[in-house]
Design brief:
Elements (H helix, E strand, L loop, with lengths): L2 H29 L2 E2 L12 E2 L2 H19 L6 H24 L3 H18 L9 H22 L5 H19 L3 H21 L8 H18 L7 H11 L1 H16 L12 H7 L4 H26 L2
Antiparallel strand pairs: 1-2
Helix pairs in contact: 1-2, 1-7, 2-3, 2-7, 2-8, 3-4, 3-8, 4-5, 5-6, 5-8, 5-10, 6-7, 6-8, 6-12, 9-12, 11-12
């Protein structure tokens, strides 16, 4: 895919996202689908629409599909929708969670089902060569990244910026190894996240909700599994995925370990994430997000360097 086409896909995805999110804000206000401040964790000055995740899911699905049609890659539509379908299923689970607040056990079971669906459709890790072990790794990977992105959705712009940076790294590595479909999906995701950030950067005018966090988490998990450069040892592929997803993995690990040590259930809501720690030390919301992205840029650069060293 040429640089011109890549740029066109990026711009088209960003514009689609801007329009879809703008519409979602109006719809959410009309339906009163809002996130209300509680002066504990949610300290925004007024209720914020939280249908942004549905808008992001629709925008990405449309942008990626039409991009493939316009550039003449219709043969890849089936492969693209193998990635999109589990992500849309995750968005529906997240939307249900937004409405009903699903208990942790069934929520984890549903997330495992999303990973199993992705495996069944062909998005599979191939680390050990033992089918049931690789299936388990795949399911756990999806659960970790879905929850990781969801937990990162604690400060304006943080979740979307994280997925943007990770996807940008995936796009560069896809270029190095000629993975055109992964490149197109990654560029589409970068554009959609950037368009969403127009409204979600501090002070946010829209939230992802669990629907959007689940969608972006599933999509990112799928992209990183699909980023399997040929002639690269499996351990290198694992390292690339871990480096690109370093921030959601690190934040999740930090929060879970801290809460378990304090005798608190890991799924208890609280202001104890990495972004909150930075804010408690005097960083602004935007400053904390940028600081964490700087760290992710470092691990992403390491991933790109590792991939470049293995490239033909």
């Amino acid at each position: 895919m040429t640089w011109f086409l890549s740029g066109a896909v990026f711009i088209g995805s960003a514009l689609t996202s801007v329009v879809a999110v703008a519409i979602s804000i109006r719809v959410a206000r009309r339906w009163r689908f809002l996130d209300y401040p509680d002066q504990v964790r949610k300290n925004q000055s007024e209720p914020v629409p939280k249908l942004g995740g549905i808008a992001v899911a629709i925008a990405f699905s449309l942008a990626a599909t039409f991009a493939l049609i316009i550039i003449g890659k219709t043969a890849d539509l089936g492969l693209a929708w193998v990635v999109i379908l589990p992500s849309l299923a995750a968005a529906l689970v997240g939307y249900w969670d937004d409405l009903r607040a699903i208990d942790p056990a069934p929520r984890l079971l549903l997330q495992a089902g999303i990973g199993a669906l992705a495996w069944g459709l062909g998005t599979r890790t191939e680390v050990t060569g033992v089918t049931w072990v690789d299936l388990l790794i795949t399911v756990l990977w999806f659960m970790v990244i879905i929850n990781g992105v969801n937990l990162l959705d604690n400060s304006d712009g943080l979740a979307a910026a994280t997925v943007l940076v990770s996807s940008l790294g995936a796009a560069v590595i896809a270029v190095l190894f000629g993975q055109e479909l992964v490149l197109l999906l990654a560029i589409s995701l970068v554009g959609v996240c950037l368009g969403y950030l127009r409204y979600n950067w501090f002070p946010a005018r829209v939230y992802l909700g669990d629907s959007g966090a689940y969608f972006l988490g599933t999509l990112l998990a799928s992209l990183l599994v699909g980023l399997r450069p040929t002639a690269v040892p499996p351990i290198v592929g694992v390292a690339l995925a871990l480096l690109l997803a370093a921030l959601p993995i690190l934040d999740t690990t930090y929060v879970v370990v801290r809460r378990l040590n304090a005798g608190i259930h890991p799924f208890t809501a609280g202001r104890d994430h990495l972004a909150h720690r930075l804010q408690d030390k005097g960083r602004t919301v935007a400053g904390s997000v940028l600081t964490l992205q700087a760290g992710l840029f470092v691990t992403t650069a390491v991933a790109i360097g590792l991939a470049a060293a293995q490239a033909p």
